[in-house]
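User: I'm curious whether this sequence folds into something compact or stays loose and floppy. Could you predict its structure so I can see for myself?
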Amino acid sequence: MLLGDMGADIIKVEKPGCGDDTRSWGPPFVQKESCYFMSVNRNKRSIAVDIKQPKGVAIIRELAKNSDVMIENFVPGGLDKLGLGYEDMKKIAPSLIYCSITGYGSDGPLAKRAGYDVVAAAMGGLLHITGNEDGDPVRVGVAMTDISTGLYAHGAIMAAILQRQKTGEGQKIDCNLLSTQVAVLSHIGSNYLIAGKEAKKWGTGHESIVPYQAFKTSDGAFLVVGGGNDQQFSSVCKVLGMEHLLNDSRYTSNRDRVKNRRPLIATLSKRLSERTMAEWLEAFEGSGVPYGPVNSMQETFTNPQVIHNGMVQEIEHPVVGKIRIPGSAVRFSSQSIQNSEPPPLLGQHTGQILKEILDYSDFQINQLKEEHIIEDENLPQESC
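Assistant: Here's the prediction. I'll summarize afterward.
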């Protein structure tokens, strides 16, 4: 989707009958269209091809010859059996960049396992450090391991394209959920690898910075306040009218505050519970302190800065009409990112792509339809 936002022609190859699994992930649905699917599939064209049949394989191989990049997320070895693995594709398209996204890697003891976000998050340590201090492991609210893997793949593909401009040759890129999750453990991973310190859950708090967490206000809302350095902590104390804490030797430095976390958090929590969210937001404004409310979805998408940043995009969908989805997170000074194409219907562009890219005739396309090799949105869908 990110590559599509930047102008790439993305051809999404789907299974005839049901397509991408996320098409069925709901509710909520809008006229049988999954909101989940629509959230990550803008600026793509859909072609429905049965790759278990030789003629379907032939279509993919022809498309690969005419493409810059091929991205696949089969269990390792799955496409090799069909003649669509990297070694097969390299022979017919030497300049092709072939990106495999798997659960655990293209080889190794766990390579054949199916990969899912929450499983990789569990095995990669994220669930171990997420949740209340004395509570059960908690899944992050969105599929951050999946999304982060997509971001790594996006960057790797762009780098491979630049490399190909120098050498004229393609290459294989291996991305996997487990490696991504381990890589994004950041300082938590380094704390263990360097200092031998096992990680734990801190709720909304931070292991190495105090204060840096959510506090409950008098009206039941939660406000996140951070004091990442001594100056910010001083500002927090001034806003709260608790300057006496600055003379307390337990809180002189961040190291001291981390050491004496419990009494300090208890003191700050009591003070922040004495006024409403609105009152504290007004008090912290202009203080230089990092702060912000814990927002609902309604509050997030009506936030003036979110709207100003163009994070709410409207697209006209061919079935459900106008839809709103989260927009692109980046801006360019010399060009604009166009999010104009809606998430595709299953097989919506099959005939178009076969004609436009592969020069198939109407007769050939109709024959493939009759043989159930391909499908488009105008044909009745069969169940998977």
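Summary: Confidence is low (pLDDT under 50) at residues 379-383. The CA atoms of residues 124 and 382 lie 38 Å apart.
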